[in-house]
Structures are given as structure tokens and as C-alpha cells.
Amino acid sequence: MMTGVGWGLDGGLWMILDIAVGIAIVVSLVWLITAALPGRQRSATGDEAQILKTRLARGEITEAEYEQARRLFGIS
To answer: pTM above 0.85?
Structure first.
């Protein structure tokens, strides 16, 4: 005799929910650990500076646009 709510909550659905919660916990822990590792954060400022220098050298932007973008991104 089933004692569930009508969907089979007495077994099958609880097992699926348990597995889903377990997977979510494992994924969250892996994400937290990898985010906390040193060297995982990259300096976006260095990339932005290189892109701006390249665009200036190719003539894609003017010196005034270069200076404005440099100030906007906080590049010294």
C-alpha cells in the first residue's frame, strides 16, 4: 500500500530529489574551490591595455579615443 502524496513520493521522487541535491552540492563545492585558488583571477586591466595599444597601432582609434578609453578602464 502506498502512503505517498500521489506521485510516488514514498520512494522514486525522493530518490531523484536526493540525487539532484547531491549533484548541486558537489558542483557548488567544486566551483567554490576553483574560484578560491590563487592565480585563477586574471588581470583584465593588462588585457585591456594591450587591446587599446593594438587598436591605436592599427589606426582603429585616435590618440584622443585611446586616452579616453585608458581613463575609463583605469589604465595607468
So the answer is: no
